[in-house]
């Protein structure tokens, strides 16, 4: 049982100073006064008081937890806990867990951390899953990523399942610091622990891993997304596609476009153009031409940019005839105004 320290602790005094503008004082032991007026709250206080008097402490704790969880402000939550302690009932670990979570939810992570350190950590009490999940979120909001990872690792070491909110918070913080491989490791461990991972977790990781060129890890996240029967968004497909193009993994990039087409996902003209550019850069003009024809078949009109890319690619391989075909058939016929760079390439390479 946790000792009655809340009223006398520095944490409580600090909270009391911060809410002195409240119309009703929170340091009084009179339950009817310590909580803002309202029939429901008064009834809850009365019920808790009766349960305490009858020695039904577990039931009283449940009532207290419900009152804390429904508190509308920090002052209300602390008032409930303080008034009950004043009645002679020690708050149990579950009640502290609810209070800590409420403080985090109400935007007071510093107070939540102080409460945890004073009432849980310093007392040698073993934190339960609810407390550890709340402390992950709390530490993330305070920008203490290492502490958050500590709490997260403790969750996993005790075989607890991390909550969806805790997973998202820690991944957001890791990605904000560009620690994408750390985020990937935490993501996998949460996945294997059967945590419920929100779609935001997949989005974050896909963006960060692809941006930094960690393509094998990004593909692993993508596969897990498909295995969970989530339909990837166009944004996720694009992140992976451009990452593959940037990493010169053009065959995989083209396969991804094929998958998008088979799923009816919109493939824009810029993606086809990027694929053509990478093939031309690798001097694989047959593949570049095939992608170009596929783009035309879908209904996209050639523009000056993609024509210049193809002409430049053909000319560098001394395939002058094919370069002029692109110019004559796809630019002049389609009324695409050639850029001066196009003529420079055409005439210079032919010399």
TrEMBL record:
Q: Spans of the PPR repeats?
A: 128-162, 198-232, 233-267, 268-302
Q: Tell me which Pfam families the record gives.
A: PPR, PPR_2
Q: Which InterPro entries match?
A: PPR-containing_protein (IPR050667), PPR_rpt (IPR002885), TPR-like_helical_dom_sf (IPR011990)
Keywords of this entry: Repeat
What PANTHER family does this protein's entry cite?
MEMBRANE-ASSOCIATED SALT-INDUCIBLE PROTEIN-LIKE, OS03G0201400 PROTEIN
Which family does the similarity line name?
Belongs to the PPR family. P subfamily.
The protein here is known as Pentatricopeptide repeat-containing protein
UniProt source species? Acacia crassicarpa (northern wattle)
């Amino acid at each position: 049982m946790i000792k009655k320290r809340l009223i006398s602790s520095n944490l409580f005094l600090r909270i009391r100073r911060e809410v002195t503008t409240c119309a009703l004082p929170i340091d009084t032991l009179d339950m009817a006064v310590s909580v803002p007026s309202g029939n429901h709250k008064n009834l809850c206080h009365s019920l808790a008081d009766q349960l305490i008097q009858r020695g039904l402490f577990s039931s009283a704790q449940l009532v207290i937890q419900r009152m804390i969880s429904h508190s509308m402000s920090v002052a209300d939550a602390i008032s409930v806990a303080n008034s009950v302690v004043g009645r002679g009932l020690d708050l149990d670990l579950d009640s502290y867990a609810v209070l800590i979570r409420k403080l985090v939810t109400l935007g007071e992570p510093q107070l939540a951390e102080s409460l945890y350190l004073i009432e849980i950590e310093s007392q040698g009490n073993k934190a339960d899953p609810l407390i550890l999940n709340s402390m992950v979120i709390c530490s993330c909001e305070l920008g203490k990523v290492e502490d958050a990872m500590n709490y997260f690792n403790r969750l996993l070491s005790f075989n607890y399942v991390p909550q969806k909110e805790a997973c998202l918070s820690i991944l957001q913080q890791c990605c904000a610091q560009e620690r994408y491989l750390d985020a990937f490791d935490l993501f996998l461990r949460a996945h294997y622990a059967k945590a419920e991972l929100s779609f935001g977790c997949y989005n974050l990781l896909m963006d960060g891993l692809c941006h930094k060129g960690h393509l094998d890890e990004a593909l692993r996240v993508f596969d897990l997304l498909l295995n969970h029967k989530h339909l990837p968004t166009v944004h996720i497909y694009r992140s992976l596609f451009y990452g593959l193009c940037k990493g010169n993994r053009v065959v995989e990039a083209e396969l991804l476009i094929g998958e998008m087409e088979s799923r009816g996902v919109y493939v824009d003209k810029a993606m086809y153009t990027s694929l053509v550019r990478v093939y031309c850069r690798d001097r694989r003009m047959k593949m570049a031409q095939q992608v170009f024809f596929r783009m035309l078949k879908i209904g996209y009109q050639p523009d000056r940019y993609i024509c210049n890319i193809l002409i430049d690619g053909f000319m560098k391989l001394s395939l002058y005839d094919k370069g002029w075909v692109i110019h004559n058939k796809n630019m002049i016929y389609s009324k695409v105004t050639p850029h001066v760079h196009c003529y420079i390439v055409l005439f210079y390479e032919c010399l």
